[in-house]
Each structure stands twice: as structure tokens, then as C-alpha cells.
Protein: 3-isopropylmalate dehydrogenase
Organism: Brevundimonas terrae
Amino acid sequence: SEKRNFNIVVLPGDGVGPEVTKAAQRVLTCLGDIYGHTFSFTEHLIGGAAIDATGTPLPKETEAACVAADAVLLGAVGDPKYDGKPVRPEQGLLTIRKSMGLFANLRPLQVSPALSHRSPLKREIVEGTDLLVFRELTGGVYFGERTRTDTSASDLCTYTVEEIERVTRAAFKAAEQRRGKVTSVDKANVMETSRLWRETVTRIHAEEFPNVTLEHALVDSAAMHLILRPRDYDVILTENMFGDILSDEISVLGGSIGLLPSASLGSDGPGLFEPIHGSAPDIAGQDKANPIGTILSAAMMLRHSFQLEDEADSIEAAVAAVQASNQVTRDLGGELGTEAATRAIIDAIRAIH
Ligand code: NAI
Ligand code: MG
């Protein structure tokens, strides 16, 4: 591919965020050296780090830099020291997703033979799992009106047809490139937003994607079936909160939440790429964080934002090679620290080229 320059805004955030974003930047820089691309990184504040420095979890200049970037790489936000405080780090992440129009959150999971014994679940159940969650990211209860009195509280869940349609189309398009199946997860037996969700998904399927197989599932039984028969799933399409919860559950299939990447995409403009885990304050600053979720998020950036397929494949092949040689971090029962794991992946990239 032709050589290009890419401006990447890095939002290290809190806890393990700075460690894992540093790891992914090192991997990107290595690939840039090999393929002749220039990846320029500019760090900005978000989350608790931003509250401490500026009083707000998302300074205006961070927001402006993200919108103007070619792509955004995020670590994680959140720290227990803000519990019970009026301004919380997590608000910065919700706001940047909304202001960048990032309505589709893609969370892939593959359980390779080399890693299937690392899962706490039975190998014969998880091995060969290859699924992709499409989580709606800018609607639903996380963005609804809130009320609070001394004795009651409410969170309003709202979806418009347009919000459901755009993430639904993205999920069906992805399914066409995969095994051609979408499982739409809702709670249509109880919730009105879910009934609108189901009607809308059914209509888009019939009108635009009749060649994709569509099944509907209720979120409670889907949570069970994901653990019992994960290989049956291809693309899972769901709303914001259900997707948040199910993707942490799904991470157990692969052995650790530290392995899972994500891409958050809008209809145009830069995407945002981050591991699905949080700031992991229990292991922050100790060289214990698994950097792979963030490194694979960088691979998703190369593929989805920069159309650099070969470069993305190189990262994924290097990660797989390191895992196959049983070099893993502590969360998977191994001994590697963040630094050593990153170095092993960089060495594997160099070995491939
Ligand atoms: P968490 O994902 O930070 O941690 C859950 C568990 O997984 C912890 O035991 C942690 O040590 C482990 N873990 C997470 N990432 C790991 C990695 N890369 N390598 C090895 N182990 C890893 O979730 P938790 O503890 O519920 O939340 C901590 C903070 O993070 C909270 O303030 C929460 O609001 C915030 N959070 C932020 C997110 C984000 O920035 N996208 C997402 C989820 C939570
Ligand atoms: Mg979550």
C-alpha cells in the first residue's frame, strides 16, 4: 500500500490506560517503520486525569482534537477516588462517543485453539468461537433523562427508529462479510424500546438484507446461550446497555477481558479505538496489564479507519504467534508483564517481515 501520514489522538486516561496505550503506540510505530507510514501521536486529557488538571472529564480542546484527528486511541477512564463525587471520569467517555457520533461499537472475539485452554470454561465449548458484537453506543438508558429524589430514582430508556436503523445496517453489512447470520438481542417481551428495536431490525432485514439469516433472542436467555453454545453466534446486534453487559460476559470465553479490542464508528469522521476493559485500578502502574486488547484495537484502527489491511493482519498474526508460543500475561496464568508482552509482539511482527 502507498505510504501515508496519519494523525492519531491518544487519550491515555486513568489507571492502566497510559500503560496499554503506550504499548499500542510502540506496535504502531514498529509497523510504520516496516511499511513506511508515519503515525503521529498527540496526547490529550480525558477522565480522571482531565478532572484533576482542568475540573472537567472532557476538556473542549480534547473534544476538538478528537474530531479533527484521523483516528482516536483510548486507554480507559475511571478511578474509585471519584465515587460519590458529582463529576465522574466516565462522563468524559460517554460525551466523546456522543459528540463524535460513534453509534456502532464493534467488539470481536475469536477463541483460537492455542488459547482455548486459557478459558475457565470447557475447551470443547469455547474453541472455535468467532463472533462480533455490534453494540449501539449513543442511545438507550445511558443517555436518557435521569431523576432523583431522596426516596426514588429513574433512568429513561429511549430509542428512535433512526438510531436503531443505522446500527442495524452496519451489523447486517458486517454479517454479509462473515458467516451471514445476525442475532438481534432485546427484551421485547417487556420493554417498549425493545419492541421498536425488533420491528425495525425485522423491517431492515426484509427490505435490505434478505440474504442474511436473522434470529431474535431475549437478552436473559441469550446471556445463558452465549456460555452454553458460543460457536452458534456470528454477529450479535444489541442496544447500548445489553451490549455493555454481554460483551464483558463474552470476554470470559476468551480467557481474559484484557484480550478484547473494540472499534467505535460513526457514519463518517474519525473512529475511536479502545480495549473493552476499564481502568483496572487494582493492577494499575504495576506492569501487570495485558496490552493485547489495546494492541488489537490499534489493528482495528488500521483496518477500519486507514484501510491498511496487511498492516492490521500483521498485528493479529503477531499476537496469535506470541499466544501460540505460550507467552502470556498474568491474567491468563502466565508471567509476562505489560512491557515484556509488548516486546514479544513487536519481535513477532519483525519476525514476520
Ligand atoms: P475493569 O475492566 O477495569 O476491571 C475488571 C477486572 O479485570 C479487574 O480485576 C482488572 O484487574 C481486570 N482487568 C481489566 N483490564 C485488564 C487488563 N488489560 N489486563 C489484565 N487484567 C485486566 O472493570 P472495573 O474494575 O469494573 O472498573 C474499574 C474502573 O474502570 C471503574 O471506574 C469503571 O467505571 C471504569 N470503566 C471504564 C471503562 C472504559 O474506560 N471504557 C469500561 C469499564 C469500566
Ligand atoms: Mg463495560
Notes: The pocket of magnesium ion (ligand 2) is lined by residues 244, 248 (CB under 6 Å). The chain has two domains: 1-104+257-353, 116-254. Residues 241 and 263 are 17 Å apart (CA to CA). The radius of gyration is 20 Å.
